[in-house]
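Readers of this paper often ask what the protein records in our data store actually look like. Such a record has a labelled line for the sequence and another for the backbone structure tokens. Nothing more is needed to write down the fold, since each code stands for a local backbone conformation. The remainder of this section carries one protein's record, kept here as part of the documentation.
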Amino acid sequence: MRILRTPVPALLAALALAGPVPAFSAAREPVVLLLSGGGARGAAHVGVLKVLEAEHVAVDMILGTSMGALVGGLYASGLTAAEIERTMLETDWSGIFRDGPERALESYRRKQDERDYRVHGRLRLAGKKPSLPLGAIEGHRIVEMLRQKTAAVAGVEDFSRLPIPFRAVATDLETGEAVVLARGDLALALRASMAVPGAFTPVEIDGRYLIDGGISENLAIEIAQRSGPVRILAVDISSPPLPMEELGSAAGVLNQAITLLMARENERQLAQLDANDVLIRPALGSFSSASFAQAGDAIRIGEEAAQAAVAELRRLALPPEEYAAWRRGATVASGLENGKIASVVVSAPDTADGRAARRRLERQVGRPLDAAALQREAERARGTGLYESVDLVVAPAGEGEVRAELKLAPRAGGADSLLFGFRLYDDFRGSTDFDLGARWIGRDQTRRDLEMRVDLRLGERQAATVDLYRPLGEMHTLFVGAAGGFREEPWALYLGESISFRLRRRDLFARVDLGAVLGTWGEVRLSLEQDWSRLRPSSDEGLELGELRFDETLAAGRFGFDTFDDATFPGEGAFGRLDVVRVLESGIEESGLTYGSLLALQAWTVAGNRMVAGLEVGDLIAGTQGFPRLEGGGLFRLSGFAESELRGSRLAIGSVRLAREIAGGVVRNPVFVGGSLELGTVLPEAAAMTWNDAVLNGSIYVSIDSLLGPIFVYVGLAEEGRRSWGFSLGRQLF
């Protein structure tokens, strides 16, 4: 992409190059529309555009900054004000500002990582050094949305040749200079112009790292005036400084300092306007730059502000015939809906995953365009975690044809990463459970595609394990694996409602695996494991129970699937796990023991309420056990009992849970309230299970999906007046 390092070229020359824009009489001064930045406040620009269309005001060039660049770029690419309004109102802004791939399309192993380690995000490693991001959000979803909306002009590199000539203003991160983007990738230029420092990562274009244009010139009046004699129509939606009592924090003070510097530059720019120019300042007041959910209100305010200036706008209006001709040239249909895919290009590293992606996409050649299928392939690649960037471009390629290009850029320094987990549970009865852990994921991106996971956990639960995973075949449909290490966890025995005594189980283990990958949604795995175990009282119990040592050889089969859209509060999808374990040899006379368990969950959303229905069963299939292997109790698993309070060899729990978001948004962690109903029991092996054994339970909770993991404060209820209280952070919910 070429960056103008000098002022914008003469506007009339730009117009001469802009084919779709008809020529006007020499007596008419060109009208330049300036749209400033301001985050969600920028939705007001759409209201102004609606009035411009109603009053037949044609613009000859658009200069946009930040959110003004996004709105202006969409308008310049051929969308109407009504189409941009629909985009603003229908876009899931809270989702578009999240970097993670669509969860249902992540690989099954990456979903396992997310369930095991609940701290949001992962620390990337470049070699052995941490690679910290230059911003909280990489913004790939924004680029994808912009590519979809501007697909009709995807082949236009010179922004002067867009339906309306356009420029985006960004800021050079090293020099602080305003940078005017005039050529290249339109979607990337818009993303660069709105790269708010700290929130979004900078965008590298032509060797320069670019951030939000509002830092240098939020309202580019001087840039427009250098183009020659023009009439400026400026829309200023910049945020005003806040009163002292609303700053609230160090972050608020820092944001205020930036706002003050921008306001000073804004006023200097506004002083350059003359009597022939038009300035519109929508009365947005304290409307937050993060209030994307209230975009409709901002659009209305912008429309009202433009209506108040309608007398001035009419001086810029064209006769109906001339405006109609301009409108025809400034509006472009995408023409992609019924196109056939003529060619596919996949730029990917020579790894098994890269080659598989190329083969899957090449199968689309000759087929009608299926934008959703192409997007799923991009999301699947992003879900592997192997790539620094995943960029999908779909563009016209002739009459009735389109071309697709998928660019997979490997991560600089490799794809290694660190995950962190933090778990805390307190039952408000003197029992506290705490541990923290980390997982290092090392990935060999050579043709072998070997993956290693190393886990370290300290606290009430301790572990140090190594897991090796090697996919087989060109399409990664099979895999082999091996694991081993040390693990120790508490094992409490209850008599009545209080803990009778505490034990700890410690294992050294070694395991080999063979399995099949079922797309991105699941896997089947066969395992053979050797355990060297001991069960002993906790050191603080003072019990003279001795220590039980035993060895076990286990054969296990597992089928698992996960299509949930969210790991904590799913609104759609399903989750399931079926385990069958046979004890081949045992030091405690359990040889021949076979037991199994099944967990199945289905999620859906009704009137904004996220609901999950679940069934969990476990049973002793054959043999005699030395100690109970199934447990129940805790939130959603018979909530009226404490975690792991119920132990036995037969388990059946049916549940329905509900969650409703009551607060949150684009920049705040969501807050939920909810509850559950559960019916079930846990019995010893000798007991036959009947409906009379089932105990009705329920819970009421408040939860925050925090950066450290989900926080729950709840009360659990059961029949006969049983009640449990709990606080948990970072726990698995399924």
